[in-house]
Write a structure and sequence with these properties.
Radius of gyration: 21 Å
Number of domains: 1
Number of strands: 9
Largest sheet: 5 strands, mixed
Helix content: 40-55%
Number of helices: 8
Structural class: alpha/beta
Shape: globular
Oligomer: single chain
Strand content: 15-25%
C-alpha cells in the first residue's frame, strides 16, 4: 500500500512538472513556432509552393486550394459565387497524371486544377472520383466557414507581378464573406526585399521571396525566406496576433 501511494505521488509530481515544462518547450522550440506561423496562413494559389512550404515546417492543414492551380480571375469568380458546385460530379473532371501516377481534378466551372493525393495503385478512377468529390464538398464548406473568421491570413503566391487593381479585387471578393486579410507573395531580385512584407493598405500586404519555388522544374522553395516574410506579415497584422504565436 505504501509503495502504491509513493507511485501515485511520483506520478502526480511528474504531471505537475510536465504541465510547467511543456508550455515552455512549445514557446521556445523554434521548429514548433515555425509550424504555428505556417498554420496561421491559408493558400489560395496560384500554385502549390506555399503548400510545400507548410509541409516543410510540419504543417499539414486542410485547404481547398492548398495544392491547386488557379488564377486571380478564376478565384474571384469562385468567391463571388460561393464556390457553387465545387465537388459536384457534373462539375468535377478526374484524370490520371501518367508521370506521377496521381489522379488530378479540374473544376469545370471555375477551371482550377488540384492534386488529389490519390494514386492509381490505391484506387480506380471511379473510386478516386468519389473521394475527390466528397473531399471537394467538405473543403468548400470549410473554406466558406473559415472566411467568416478574422483569424486566417490568406496567401496568393505567383511567380509574376500582379496589378494592384487585381489585388484589390481579390481582397474585395474575400471580404464579401468576412474580415479577411490577404498577402500576395512574389519573387524580387532585390535582396533587401527578400524575406520581408509590406502593408499596401489595411488588410492587404505584399511579400517577397528570391525566386519561384520550382524554378528548376522541381519544388524547392526558399524556406528560410518564406518563414521570415510570414513572421513579418504577422507582425504587420498586429502585436496581439504575433504575441499569440510567441513572436
Amino acid at each position: 500500500m505504501a509503495e502504491q501511494k509513493q507511485d501515485v505521488a511520483r506520478l502526480s509530481l511528474g504531471k505537475r512538472i510536465a504541465a510547467r515544462l511543456i508550455p515552455i518547450w512549445r514557446r521556445t522550440n523554434p521548429f514548433l513556432t515555425d509550424y504555428k506561423v505556417c498554420m496561421a496562413f491559408e493558400s489560395l494559389g496560384e500554385n502549390c509552393e506555399f503548400g510545400f512550404v507548410q509541409s516543410h515546417f510540419g504543417a499539414e492543414p486542410l485547404g481547398l486550394l492548398r495544392f491547386s492551380g488557379v488564377t486571380v480571375d478564376q478565384l474571384i469568380d469562385a468567391l463571388d459565387h460561393d464556390f457553387e458546385g465545387v465537388g459536384e460530379p457534373d462539375q468535377t473532371e478526374v484524370h490520371l497524371n501518367p508521370e506521377g501516377g496521381e489522379y488530378l481534378s479540374i473544376d469545370t466551372r471555375y477551371r482550377f486544377s488540384s492534386h488529389s493525393m490519390v494514386l492509381a495503385n490505391a484506387a480506380t478512377e471511379a473510386e478516386a472520383a468519389v473521394l475527390i468529390q466528397r473531399r471537394g464538398k467538405f473543403l468548400k464548406r470549410k473554406m466558406l466557414e473559415d472566411l467568416r473568421s478574422p483569424l486566417k491570413i490568406y496567401i496568393f503566391q505567383s511567380p509574376h507581378e500582379i496589378a494592384a487593381t487585381q489585388m484589390l479585387r481579390l481582397l474585395s471578393a474575400l471580404r464579401r464573406h468576412g474580415p479577411a486579410r490577404l498577402l500576395f507573395v512574389r519573387p524580387d531580385p532585390d535582396p533587401a526585399l527578400q524575406g520581408t512584407a509590406t502593408q499596401l493598405e489595411e488588410g492587404l500586404m505584399l511579400g517577397y521571396t528570391d525566386r519561384p519555388g520550382n524554378a528548376d522544374g522541381v519544388w524547392a522553395p526558399s524556406h528560410a525566406l518564406w518563414i521570415r516574410l510570414l513572421r513579418h506579415a504577422l507582425k504587420l497584422c498586429g502585436a496581439e496576433r504575433a504575441a499569440r504565436l510567441g513572436l
